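Input.
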Amino acid sequence: MTTTTATSPVLEATGVTMRFGGLTAVRGVDLTVNSGEIVGLIGPNGAGKTTFFNCLTGLYVPTEGRVAYKGTVLPPKPHLVTSAGIARTFQNIRLFANMTVLENVLVGRHTRTKEGLWSALLRGPGFRKAEAASRERAMELLEFIGLAHKADHLSRNLPYGEQRKLEIARAMASDPGLLLLDEPTAGMNPQETRATEELVFAIRDRGIAVLVIEHDMRFIFNLSDRVACLVQGQKLVEGTSDIVQNDERVIAAYLGTPFEGAPGSEEAAEVEAAEAAEAQGTTSTEGPAQ
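Output.
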């Protein structure tokens, strides 16, 4: 972990609650991410981490609470959240398989281009200038993640670790002030995990705040300035890596040992099933997104 000087809040989530029918997947969660900061979000399966992410990015409309970016309450629409300055990746890779590496990154630029339909159809000087600027920015990002030499390759032909990196580059193409990473090292070997850690530090050094969900505890505790732990939709503890990893309640939650106020196994299973069902519905209705 590299200590940074946190300044103004980039993200402020206050009292975020998400219910699916009678099930509460996220309950009254408060979380702040400051500029220049990397914050980790951990918790056992079914803890509500991805549901909370979806509330932050407009995929879900919270039942209660508010989400603000740089002091402005966010509209519950993913494309408007992206335009405001928040970008994300997903647990499951969502690249356009039959598009090139460069084209995938260019898709992420759409919220930052001003050219309209007629400009695109007529392909006038303004359109050509904007297209050239987008390509230049996309190539700069591919250089940053080490994939510039594969710009013309189909994304489906990339190794798994490079597909993960490409997703991050596509998210960065929208020029966010806050990047949300949902399990960026899932399925990676130790070398790829270490490379991802260095990439996240480099992203932070570019002035982008980062919020990360991860199950790899070594990765998240080495990476984060602060860590918050969710258990059954509620924030159990938040603090430095040392504080969180030594908290008896966090240890108990990961070991499956009951602690005071912990929900029963049946309630935990119901919440996890509700999250999975909602995620499946979202995947079927939403196309690939940056």
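Confidence is low (pLDDT under 50) at residues 2-6.
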